[in-house]
Write a structure and sequence with these properties.
iron; mainly alpha; Cytochrome Bc1 Complex, Chain D, domain 2; 2 domains; cell membrane; about 55% helix; two-stranded antiparallel ribbon; single chain; 9 helices
């Protein structure tokens, strides 16, 4: 009877048996490929859904623009005699002008005044997305720059250097030439303050990132929010308009009191 022997490897280990480590490696490779394929598919799907949602927002904005803004700015937003071109103004400009009620304008004047907002936040976002799609321009600010947690002292110094000549050191606003004015900054949202700095509405200059960095803009916002949340340490601020209002107060009430006292003393002596 013939005996068939099984070949052995050196060390007495049989050939043809799979190492346990090889099985683990195969399972790991399978999981890796499966997970990678799923991630790629999910990412592409999410990207497609995001793009579709963005395009839908732009389309809604275009409809709103045609119905409410094209009369002055033209159907292609290139401007007319009644209104300037909006090509390249960016989403930040639209969000500021529409979000503060300055646009649509109620009537022509030296400048657009703040009034009740006529569009919802969603409609404003759609208008901003549409105008931003026409050409590059200032985008909406990053939320991290609007938290009011910057350096208030640095913001106060920057505000005095760049803004106080028009808006007053306390942000109370002031008159300009030809019926124009710098509005008060009390109660203005952080978003609109930032957008005003990067877009330069009305007579305001544009403070781009080369003039004032985003972090410095954050500091200015922090200073203005500090003024909002802290009353005048000197008592009644008289509108925070400086020596003019203070002098007028003393002239009327101080001098008036002296005159009244003099008249009373004279009447008593008689």
């Amino acid at each position: 009877m013939t005996t068939i022997s099984t070949p052995k490897q050196s060390g007495g280990r049989r050939t043809g048996r799979r190492s346990p480590l090889a099985s683990v490696a195969l399972i790991a490779i399978g999981l890796l490929f499966t997970g990678g394929a799923y991630a790629a598919f999910s990412t592409s799907t999410a990207s497609a859904e995001t793009n579709a949602a963005s395009q839908q927002t732009v389309d809604e904005g275009q409809k709103l623009f045609a119905a409410n803004c094209a009369t002055c700015h033209g159907l292609a937003a290139a401007g007319t005699e009644a209104g300037p071109s909006l090509i390249g103004v960016g989403a930040a400009s639209v969000d500021f002008q529409v979000g503060t009620g300055r646009m649509p304008m109620q009537l022509n004047g030296p400048q657009a005044e703040k009034k009740a907002v006529q569009f919802t936040e969603e409609q404003t976002a759609s208008l901003a997305a549409y105008v931003a799609s026409l050409a590059p321009g200032p985008a909406l600010p990053d939320p991290s720059l609007l938290d009011g947690e910057g350096d208030a002292a640095n913001g106060a110094e920057l505000f005095r250097i760049n803004c106080a000549m028009c808006h007053n050191v306390a942000g109370a606003g002031g008159a300009l030439t030809q019926g124009k004015y710098a509005p008060a900054l009390t109660g203005v949202s952080e978003t609109h303050i930032y957008e005003a700095m990067v877009t330069g509405p009305q007579n305001m200059p544009v403070f781009n990132d080369m003039n004032i960095s985003p972090e410095s803009k954050r500091d200015i916002i922090t200073y203005l929010k500090y003024l909002d949340n802290n009353p005048s340490p000197g008592g009644f601020a008289l509108g925070a308009l400086g020596p003019v209002s203070e002098g007028l107060f003393l002239w009327i009430f101080g001098l008036g009191s002296i005159v009244a006292l003099t008249v009373w003393i004279t009447a008593k002596s008689n």
